[in-house]
Write a structure and sequence with these properties.
This is Two-component signal transduction system YycFG, regulatory protein YycH. By secondary structure, this protein is an alpha+beta fold. It has three domains: about 160 residues; about 100 residues, no CATH class; about 150 residues, TATA-Binding Protein. The chain is built from twelve helices and 25 strands. Strand 5 and strand 6 form a beta hairpin.
Length: about 450
């Protein structure tokens, strides 16, 4: 049974985030229908490429201009995907998997080619198939989806994104806040739990044993783990990501809600983010983001939280109405933030403590803006008192959502504030113990 689970890992990792339809009138619509995303993922994984055919490279602007009067589907991912993760891609694209990454596939009806989009390289790669592309039914079903909404393409600092043209209704969610005990992580992360030395103080619970370092913030419950060990033989990106995916199941029973969102080739960090209802969650102290580095099948570095949410209180859900993406862009421009300053713009859930109980977490849908690699919530960048008609509101009553009940001193601050491992481990007794053992 374990082997079967591992065989399914790449399939789980490669689920697209969005399907964007383009018709002959140059109009775009977008769906996040889960069944269609699954079907599209399976379709792409089963394509057979012609290894002998040349891969043609086309400038992205030229490619888009050439197909502006054609019917197609763009399959968008959460972030840049390493080409090595797609085992069936032609070898030319996976040989140098440290650098090759892409953001989308483009598929045309009954075409004998598919197109791989790299926003970073600003290039479309033409991949030839062995057989004619039998995708008419899939494309027709995506176009016929009744949950699509109109979007407009916008070029940001790191490529094209699709922004909603109409208001969106998204439910506010409430969850019970749960915490894994420190002993759980000691048993999961240390090879010899019986030999652990405790260097805890008022600020951190700190543990050390045989080059394993663990520190858990006693206030925020942010967790940092480091295992100083010589690197094993070179691993492919695919093997690193698969190994990290395997380890994620140890820490998260609800692993299906954690999506692979990126691989940083410069330091080999693999990032997962928690999603609810196909929407990302943004929060400080790694409560909704896990960063992991692998050395073979072992974790060499881990940043996550011992806090988690699994139990939803459905009777506390309420629909909220958000302004359109186009209105959001207009507000940002009015406040000196141009599209060239933005890397991404999307609706996501903001994780906040409930004002009614510190045992509850509320997930509030709001617009999030990515700038200089950091995510910001719109309400922290813009004074919304000048835009009363566009404020976040309860759909049924029309009342403005009371952000002041939830937030304090967040202006111009990223939503994902987090400690660095240098801050956590430096100048601690645990660091001294580590140096003594190495000597």
């Amino acid at each position: 049974m374990q082997q079967n689970h591992q065989d399914q890992q790449p399939s789980r990792l490669l689920l697209p985030r969005r399907l964007v339809t383009h018709n002959k009138e140059d109009k775009f619509e977008l769906t996040t229908n889960h069944d269609l995303l699954e079907r599209t993922k399976n379709y792409l994984q089963n394509l057979q490429y012609d290894e002998g055919a040349d891969i043609e490279e086309i400038g992205l602007d030229t490619f888009r201009e050439n197909c502006k009067d054609q019917r197609y589907v763009e399959v968008k991912y959460a972030d840049e995907m390493p080409s090595a993760l797609y085992a069936n891609l032609p070898d030319q694209l996976t040989e140098n998997d440290e650098t090759m990454a892409f953001t989308a596939f483009v598929i045309f009806p009954k075409d004998d080619k598919v197109y791989l989009i790299s926003e970073d390289q600003h290039t479309a790669y033409t991949l030839s198939l062995i057989n004619t592309n039998d995708n008419q039914k899939l494309i027709d079903d995506i176009f016929a989806a009744d949950d699509k909404y109109a979007v407009t393409p916008v070029n940001f600092a790191k490529g094209r994104h699709y922004i909603m043209k109409d208001k969106q209704v998204v439910p506010k969610q409430t969850y019970m806040l749960e915490r894994q005990p420190n002993t759980f992580f000691l048993n999961a992360l240390f090879s010899s739990p019986g030999e652990i030395h405790d260097y805890s103080d008022d600020d951190y619970s700190r543990y050390y044993s045989n080059n394993h370092q663990l520190a858990i913030d006693n206030k925020t419950y942010e967790l940092n783990f480091n295992h100083n060990v010589d690197s094993s033989e070179d691993q492919s990106i695919q093997d690193k990501i698969k190994a990290s995916f395997n380890k994620m199941s140890v820490f998260f029973p609800d692993q299906e809600t954690w999506w692979f969102v990126g691989y940083e080739s410069s330091n080999h960090t693999i990032t997962y983010r928690k999603f609810i209802n196909e929407l990302p969650i943004f929060a400080p102290y790694h409560v909704s983001k896990t960063e992991i580095k692998m050395n073979g099948d072992d974790i060499s570095n881990l940043q996550m939280s011992s806090l988690t949410i699994q139990t939803q209180l459905t009777d506390l859900s309420e629909d909220l109405e958000l302004m359109s993406g186009t209105n959001t862009l207009e507000i940002l421009r009015n406040n000196g933030i141009d599209t060239n300053d933005i890397e991404d713009l999307q609706i996501g859930y903001r994780w906040v403590e409930s004002p009614d109980s510190n045992h509850l977490v509320e997930l509030i849908p709001t617009w999030h803006v990515k700038r200089d690699g950091e995510w910001y919530a719109l309400e922290d960048l813009v004074d919304m008192s000048d835009y009363d008609h566009l404020k976040l509101r309860y759909k049924d009553s029309g009342d403005v959502f009371p952000w002041d009940d939830y937030l304090e001193d967040t202006k111009d601050k990223p939503v994902e504030q987090e400690a660095t491992q240098e801050e956590v481990f430096h100048n601690s007794d645990m660091e001294t113990a580590s140096e003594t053992e190495e000597d």
